[in-house]
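Design review, sub-item: ligand-bound model
Attendees: FS, YL, KQ
YL presented the inputs for the alpha-D-glucopyranose complex:
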Amino acid sequence: MKSQAGQCYNKLLSRLKPYLKSLSKSDQIVLLTRIENEYPAIFGHLSTLYGSRADFFYHLEEIFKSAIVTYKNRSDDLKKHDLKRSKNPNWHSSENVIGAVAYADLFADNINGLNKRIPYLKKLKINYFHLMPFFDCPDGENDGGYAVSDYRTVRKDLGSISDVEKLAKNLRKEDIALVADFVFNHTSNEHTWAKKALSGDKEFQDYYYMFPDRTIPDQYDATLREIFPDTRRGSFTWVDETKHWVWTTFHNYQWDLNYSNPDVFRAIASEMLFLANKGVEVLRLDAIAFTGKKMGTTSENQNDAHILVKALNGITNIAAPAVVFKSEAIVHPDFVNTYISEDECELSYNPLLMALMWEALATRDTKLLHLSMKSRFQIDDSTSWVNYVRSHDDIGWTFSDEDAAELGINGHDHRSFLNRFYSGEFPGSFSRGEAFQFNPDTDDMRICGMAASLTGLEKGVENDDPNECELSIKRMTLMYAVTMFIGGIPLIYLGDELALLNDYSYKQNDHKKSDSRWVHRVEADEKLLSKIDQIDDHRGRMFSNMVKLINIRTSNKQIGESPTHFHDTQSKHLFSFSRGDDDDKILFTGNFSEHSVAITPDLLIQNLGKKQVLTDFYTERLFSSMGEIPLEPYQFVLLKKNS
Ligand code: GLC
Ligand code: GLC
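KQ shared the predicted structure:
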């Protein structure tokens, strides 16, 4: 294969040379060096996917050409940015990186309006801003924008693609990276490709998985997981216009793309490069786990999905090297980590930490959280977790049943308990969540709700119970503290910093009422945003807690790149980890229960030494390492030895 790749390289270069001509000498050198570096890997990946096809070389050449054209069209400003990032490729592991995510129309009126929100983002020291899907999509139901009809056009009410470009530029000036979804597992049924397929165009029918009868769909369906069983059973949808069954992992109107077809790879690569040149710096690879399909398997986490992403990654390294990928693989923890590497996704959601913090809050027991983090948190130094408490999606209980079994926990029963707890059904639960996608065959279900509602604020407000309200703020602050200090990018689901509650108005909207995730997609009120520093209720308290956490994070270097060690605490209520070494070491310990629990001197001495005076960054109180440190309900401390 190697010598084949070499021979092919020389031929390819001679074909590419005419495209390089119009570039300056120095640009040519830059680009040729990148092509030379990336070529062996890209060739390897593409030949694994498409090498057996007679037209392989044609596709290979076209792909490299589009990378060259993208580079040619890339603005000087973005090229400078590429250079800046290449000098510091690990920028995402810095303690100074704080993430936030929002919908344009809920956080501002539209994309232009977001420019006015930059000062607010700066208050929270945000420099990674994920703007939820803003692309053209069907009117009515569109899965919150995840059914893309055109990757180059913005949904009319949100603005235009040049608004996105301007916003990206303004954000970049403030050192904020723009993050956008790259919804590449499927398009909407209104995308031009789908429309052509609908009109009977065979070339475009091959962009999707379309079958004339149930024979093949039945065979696939036998081993597939149902993602939205409320919507439809099985993973295929009948399309009457063309008399075909089409593969639709998610909703009927979201058609899965067929990556066994190299035309699809090329088409999607050029959409990706288009976004890169508009200034999107991080591409969140939506539903990455589903992109490779294989009969007789779950068609999740297939090898082809990895190869596909690695090939795309190689292409961005040539045309737009500042671009990094973030993996959205909400799958079994064994698989989540397989997407994370420098040549695949440098960033990844950490669904396990998210789910298990909620699990620990419900059980008041951190054993499963501790065990899972101890064995699964460590990832390569060149990559970072994106740690979150809530997102626009449901909470799925994605822990490993094998990990749970080690602790004598039955995964199925435990999930069912967690669902009952967070939907508020379980006696004594503080939570007000909504059920999502109950599957009667497997009993599976997920949970929706804003963090504030899930942690008890809604119940507290309803019952006029200040104590419950206070506990809720403490629970949220505790979880956000973990995301701030554990290592990786903390991602604030905007609205959480304001302790915003569930919004039930989606039930009155015909296009939303069947999807309870809308309960936690809530509007931030302009007045609240502008006056939040002066508001003296639970919202103001949550905001100031968040700011305090952020300030602690950004003033401690160890929170950036150092490894994380998890510690036994001798109490099932406490979760503890340390960062940094020796004199620099900091020790986090949080109480996931409403009981008062003490940190033992053992833990303190082991980590911070004998006879030391310790300071807690959060309360600024002093302690001795030789005595117990009592923690109130849901309290945490971040301790450092006094120098
Ligand atoms: C991702 C999104 C989710 C969407 C799904 C299908 O998981 O986060 O909101 O429903 O993909 O695109
Ligand atoms: C599943 C999928 C994930 C998707 C979610 C939507 O967990 O793995 O990709 O976002 O469902 O609910």
